[in-house]
Amino acid sequence: MTGHDHSHADATQDRKRLVAALCVTVLILAAEIVGAALSGSLALLADAGHMFTDASGLVIALIAASLAMRPATPERTWGYKRAEVLAAALQAGLLLVVGGFVLVEAVRRLIEPPEVGSSAMLWFGIIGLTGNAIALLVLAAGRHTSFNLRAAFLEVLNDALGSAAVIIAAVVIAVTGWTRADALVSLLIGALIVPRTLRLLKETTDVLLAATPKGLDLRSVRDHILALPHVVDVHDLHATLIGTGTPVITGHVTLKDECLSDGHSQEILAQLQECVAEHFDVPVEHSTFQLESAAHRDQEHLHH
User: Fold this and answer.
1) pLDDT tens track for 93-150
2) Cα 32 to Cα 48, 49, 111, 256, 287, distances in angstroms
3) Quick count: other Cβ atoms within 10 Å of Cβ 38?
4) 203: Cβ contacts below 8 Å, ≥ 6 apart
5) d(CA 109, CA 178)
6) DSSP for residue 212
7) pTM for the whole structure
8) Domain boundaries, the chain
9) What CATH class is the domain 2-208?
């Protein structure tokens, strides 16, 4: 019960952080749209597009955080724990589209640079950077607790770097008149967006494809189990991640025949669960092991 209460408290805190970050993001978005219209800056427009994606992503993340608090049911035995993974994957997909647009438009503007109002660009860049700094402070404490907050933190961090670059470009244009600085900064923003987005997309896709959780060596798990007394074989060993902090392991463990008849198997089951919960960098509290005799194992393989 204690672990459940702790998870519920974390989810509630996540929601508060996401709401606060969303409010700041919407304000920055409105300011940068106005700034892009006044200055003609692609860098500000790119940052505004990024902020729009951030706002959409934060709304998705907020919905996912709310769903994650709903209890499990017989129809959904894990509740909505994977909703945050779906939300993060959707955020990454949206952000990838924005990054691609920015890169293409930046190349076009390098070839044909338009006029850019450096003063408006500078002031709205400062507004964006200040707002991003506030949002980063709000999200920083929870960025390691869930995919949602990590995705939101990375997006806001990208925005902060983009806003800093906008300020630098505005200064360059004001001092030298070289308007291509705006397009170069836009390329930089695109370069900041795409790699981190691809990384997040890969991690969430791995979860959705039931890949072994990062940091958990299943070969080492198998060797550990085989080293336990009375264990003859391990097969059909699988590990996956349901949601943040919820790795799961299942497997079939073949025991010596006498262990299943003398009641010793329950002690071995406790050892197996303790093994995966305590001996690895990624502790697995949710484990399901089928204990079987060698005869059952051989018969089972015939059906496979």
Assistant:
1) 877 887 788 788 888 888 888 777 788 888 888 988 898 888 888 877 666 666 667 7
2) 5, 9, 24, 69, 49
3) 15
4) 147, 214
5) 12
6) P
7) 0.66
8) 2-208, 218-303
9) mainly alpha
